[in-house]
Write a structure and sequence with these properties.
The complex is a heterodimer of chains A (525) and B (94).
Chain A (H helix, E strand, L loop, with lengths): L1 H6 L1 H23 L3 H6 L6 H12 L2 H14 L2 H27 L4 H5 L5 H35 L3 H48 L5 H11 L16 H14 L4 H4 L8 H32 L20 H50 L6 H25 L6 H24 L5 H21 L1 H5 L15 H17 L4 H8 L1 H10 L10
Chain B lengths: L2 H39 L1 H5 L9 H37 L1
Helix pairs in contact in B: 1-3
The chains are: A mainly alpha (525), B mainly alpha (94).
């Protein structure tokens, strides 16, 4: 038994993790009887717990392996992504978190439709959410399948099935409560694992960062250039466009926004962002050290290189190989299990957010208004969870050999161009009207999608055309401008009765968003 | 309590909050787009080494920016708990 454990540390760790999380799901299922507990864990998560869970949602395997891989490859440029992902958090804290908690119930569409007309605005918000969630899910599933294929030697489709199956179990039976605890456990594991690797790496340099960077620049083929901005961003438009997508996209990710309904009040919502920002910032510093550590300890070691001199399993495996280099089989096994756990936790959060868009926004408030009740809504959300899980498995298998790297970028662009502007303006801009929000929001959504398709990442890399029709990789600068201008213009010329009504509700909505007064009274949407 | 007093408190809350938010937002956006701006317009500046060490200015400022971002969230929560929350509680009690 003990020998089996040591020889198969990754599989053993993974089985322990799955056992524990299934037990939590069983425990949570007994507490998940109402729609409120299903979507929000009863609103009883503390600020600290939610901070950990948020950071768990955010520190996906893609960002752990992807950013450390990017640092391994390009050095400094990896930092551009890290900082962009992090800077979304003060935006959420300062502008979104408290009003969201004070106005919403289960989804950010609750806030947008607080005074705007229910059906059209929820339909748009649900589209924005589902696009974001599904794109993110595909990227995670494909990444998961490939990673597990390498780490555990399982066939790709089996890995995708396991991830999809477990995720369906967690979410359907345990709802938000189970998802939150899976996320918390995974966040702790990932932070400990990444800390351990970083400490072991820096120990070899007596924690002297100067020596550490000297060694890395001596080894890397680009030498000292890896300490400076490289080719990731080649022109000012791309720099600003990427910057906008990262900064404001985070504030439009439905699975992140949903987390704010799991805490008791605005005070806890605030607290959770500080903890989350601290954990995420610390984590990005670690990924930077890990990427540079891999340059030093992995890139020269034939054990980790294939015949062509590249990393076995490509650059995203830099962190995994480094774990082996500094901690042997045991740390490799631990980090592999953590990577798997990370994927499971993130896809669960995504699926729950997608299911709430389908059941709470589309089913309960758009298609079946007035005829529904909470019990029915919860049944629908469970069916939606299973459907989304199956869809994720299906798409994961279909996209196996496609380049899915653009999908997370597109998800951020859509979040920044549709979800975020609607949310922001519905909270702060008195003159917003339903028509303006719907026209501007849909125009931004379409612009983001079309520009990505016509741009270099899809038109050239996926469709193999020689020249892109739209020259920039990142559409956010353009699509966000379309959204904000569209919303402004069509709101200003909107003289309808509904527009008057919507404006007249602003002051009382703003009062509630600032104070939270009225939050406990039942709001029937 | 009188309606007037609530209104005064609420006006004070809105004013204080928007002051806090605007200044912190300004710091965040300035820091971040300053960083992005250097990468876009003058990348070689970030390649220079800091005081004879083998640590570039870009990496140093990048790490400091991560700290600044965390610091902004910390300051906001400190101010919100100290200055905004008492006002909110007073309005609630009225």
């Amino acid at each position: 038994m003990i020998e089996f454990f040591i020889e198969n540390i990754a599989i053993s760790m993974f089985i322990i993790f799955v056992g524990l999380t299934l037990y939590i799901t069983y425990w949570a299922s007994k507490r998940t009887k109402t729609a409120k507990s299903f979507y929000t864990a009863g609103g009883e998560i503390t600020g600290f717990q939610n901070g950990l869970a948020i950071s768990g949602d955010f520190m996906s395997a893609a960002s752990f392996l992807g950013i450390s891989g990017l640092v391994y490859l390009t050095g400094f440029d990896g930092l551009i992504y890290s900082i962009g992902f992090l800077v979304g958090w003060p935006i959420i804290l300062l502008l979104i978190a408290e009003p969201l908690r004070n106005l919403g119930k289960y989804s950010f569409a609750d806030v947008a439709s607080f005074r705007l007309k229910q059906k059209p605005i929820r339909l748009l918000a649900a589209c924005g959410s589902l696009f974001t969630v599904i794109l993110y899910l595909i990227a995670q599933m494909v990444g998961a399948g490939k990673l597990i294929e390498i780490l555990f030697g399982l066939p790709y489709y089996a890995a995708v099935l396991i991830v999809g199956g477990l995720m369906i179990l967690y979410v359907t039976f345990g709802g938000m409560l189970a998802t939150t605890w899976v996320q918390i456990i995974k966040a702790i594991l990932l932070l400990s694992g990444a800390s351990l690797i970083s400490i072991l790496v820096l120990q070899e340099f007596d924690f002297n960062l100067n020596l550490f960077f000297i060694e890395a620049t001596n080894i890397h083929s680009k030498g000292i250039d890896i300490l400076a901005p490289g080719g990731l961003i080649s022109d000012p438009i791309s720099a600003i466009s990427l910057g906008l997508a990262l900064m404001f996209g985070t504030a439009g990710l439905p699975h992140i926004l949903m987390r704010f309904f799991t805490v008791k009040d605005a005070v806890q919502a605030r607290k959770s962002v500080v903890y989350a920002t601290g954990f995420i910032g610390y984590f990005y510093i670690l990924t930077f050290i890990i990427g540079f550590g891999a340059i030093i300890l992995v890139s020269q070691n034939p054990l980790y290189l294939d015949d062509l001199g590249g990393l076995i399993g490509k650059n995203n495996m830099a962190a995994i190989h480094l774990a082996h280099a500094v901690g042997g089989e045991v740390l490799l096994g631990f980090i592999s299990a953590v990577a798997f756990a990370t994927i499971l936790a993130v896809v669960s959060g995504l699926t729950l957010a997608g299911a709430s868009a389908i059941s709470h926004d589309l089913y309960a408030n758009v298609f079946n208004h007035k005829k529904t009740n909470e019990k029915k809504e919860m049944q629908v959300s469970k069916i939606a969870t299973i459907a989304l899980g199956l869809l994720a498995i299906f798409l994961g298998i279909i996209f196996e050999s496609q380049n899915v790297a653009f999908m997370v970028g597109l998800a951020f662009a859509i979040a920044a161009s549709t979800n975020f502007p609607i949310l922001l303006l519905s909270i702060y801009w008195k003159n917003l009207t339903t028509r303006g929000a719907v026209i501007g929001g849909s125009a931004g959504l379409l612009t983001a999608i079309i520009l990505v398709i016509l741009g270099p990442v899809v038109w050239v890399d996926v469709f193999k055309n020689s020249q892109p029709i739209f020259p920039y990789k990142y559409p956010a600068l353009f699509s966000m401008s379309v959204t904000f201008l569209g919303i402004w213009f069509f709101s200003m010329i909107d003289k309808s009765k509904d527009a008057q009504l919507v404006k007249s509700k602003f002051n009382s909505q703003f009062f509630r968003s600032q104070t939270g007064i009225g939050i406990n009274k039942a709001v029937k949407h | 309590m009188t309606k007037n007093k609530t209104e005064l408190l609420y006006n004070q809350l809105s004013k204080t909050r928007s002051q806090i938010i605007t200044s912190l937002l300004f710091i965040t956006i300035l820091g971040y787009f300053g960083f992005i701006g250097v990468i876009a317009f003058n990348p070689s500046f970030f390649g220079q080494m800091f005081q004879g060490l083998n640590i570039s200015i870009g990496i140093l400022l990048g790490f400091l920016l991560i700290l600044l971002i965390f610091f902004v969230t910390l300051v906001y929560v400190y101010l919100a708990n100290k200055k905004l929350q008492p006002l909110i509680e007073k309005i609630k009690n009225d």
